[in-house]
Design brief:
This protein is an alpha/beta fold. It has helices at residues 17-20, 38-51, 76-96, 108-116, 118-131, 144-151, 185-198, 225-238, 246-249; strands at residues 3-10, 26-30, 54-58, 101-104, 136-140, 155-161, 200-202, 208-210, 215-218, 242-243. Helix 2 links the parallel strand 2 and strand 3.
């Protein structure tokens, strides 16, 4: 039976956290830079613990005006420090709540930069290992993030996206392009099932691309995020796919 982790970026002020949390198996919590603060971190951690969802740090560039989706001119060393600072901040909150952080997934522009830049990817992997060598590093399937995580001796989770289109090299279509997002729920569901069942995805130009799949990202800030999450869980169940957190398994 295929197994899949469903992750969602929460604690970002989108307003759907309480409804989405029971539908996912891993959550990536904003750590106060691109969004969130100590109070929202605590509330989101407590919600995750209530529903048995794996807790992840979601560090990003400190650029609230652009929601962390604009690249900042930082060195690899500076990026490593911001990942450590934000991850440790969430680790402290999680400990206070009686839980633990199990994984790290960079946010927005930082995520995309690490996917294509080996030096940044290695700085992030080293930072994650410094926080806890048992942490799972989430990164774009087939990218430098995955390679660097493995080089650092971390467990990695190859991530794919339900609502993003792909290029023929396996990268995501940039958000600056009109066809970057899949707005048709049926098309998004079909893309996920193809990736999970056959380990391939159809690129925007029609090419079929092989892809690793450990975890699927559900964006929590869409107007229909909750309805789509419910449909996806139902479709995966009907297809015989087991939905379970990979991050929790790393400690078992």
């Amino acid at each position: 039976m295929p197994r899949l982790d469903l992750n969602c970026d929460l604690g970002e002020g989108a307003g759907h956290d309480a409804e989405l949390m029971p539908l996912v198996t891993s959550t990536n919590i904003a750590c106060g830079a691109h969004a969130g603060d100590v109070a929202t971190m605590r509330a989101t951690v407590e919600l995750a613990l209530q529903h048995g969802v794996a807790i992840g740090a979601h560090p990003g560039f400190a650029d609230r005006a652009n929601f962390g989706r604009r690249e900042l001119a930082l060195s690899a060393a500076e990026i490593g420090r911001l990942v450590i600072e934000q991850t440790r901040a969430l680790q402290e909150v999680a400990r206070d709540c009686g839980g633990r952080v199990t994984h790290v997934k960079p946010h927005g522009a930082l995520y995309n930069l690490a996917a294509r830049d080996a030096a940044v990817a290695r700085a992030i992997a080293a930072a994650v290992r410094a926080c806890d060598p048992h942490l799972v590093l989430f990164g774009l399937a087939g990218s430098w993030s995955i390679t660097a995580g493995r080089e650092a001796g971390l467990r990695v989770a190859s991530e794919v996206f339900a609502d993003r289109t792909y290029q023929s090299d396996g990268t995501l279509t940039p958000r600056t392009q009109a066809n970057a997002l899949i707005t048709d729920e049926n098309a998004a569901l079909a893309q996920v099932l193809l990736m999970v069942r056959e380990r391939r995805v159809r690129a925007a130009n029609g090419a079929v691309v092989s892809i690793e799949v450990d975890t699927v990202c559900l964006h929590g800030d869409g107007a229909h995020a909750v309805e789509f999450a419910r449909r996806l869980r139902a479709e995966l169940g009907a297809a015989g796919v087991e939905v379970a957190s990979l991050a929790r398994e790393s400690r078992e």
